[in-house]
Input
Amino acid sequence: MVAYYAYKCLRPLVAYFKKRVVISDPQHAHLGSEDDRFCTFFTAQQVDATHSIVRITCAMNFDPQPTDAEVRRRQDLVYAQDSAIVDTQRPERIPVDLRKELHHRTDLLGQKYRKWLHDMGVMYGTV
Output
């Protein structure tokens, strides 16, 4: 099985994520289609300088579909892992000037996002 991911930032604090899985084993190919997608739409509403409300909507077009509880359980697991990292992040105010941090090639998505914000005149990538 091979997974392909696509990320799109529609505007600051609004993002879209798409996952497509290709079943490479011919014996199991009947279990899916290359048109199958799992998509997530994220929005963040800043409440104050250090708090936001994040809203997430998931959609998929394959069968059998996981139940709402299964999707929520999986999303809670993923976001709890992300939260553990974000909550210990220092500095809290992430600069959009990429020269102020050391980056790795796996940071490409974040680098592109911050460059995009910088080009729009935004001072910080997140709080």
Helices lie at 68-86, 108-119.
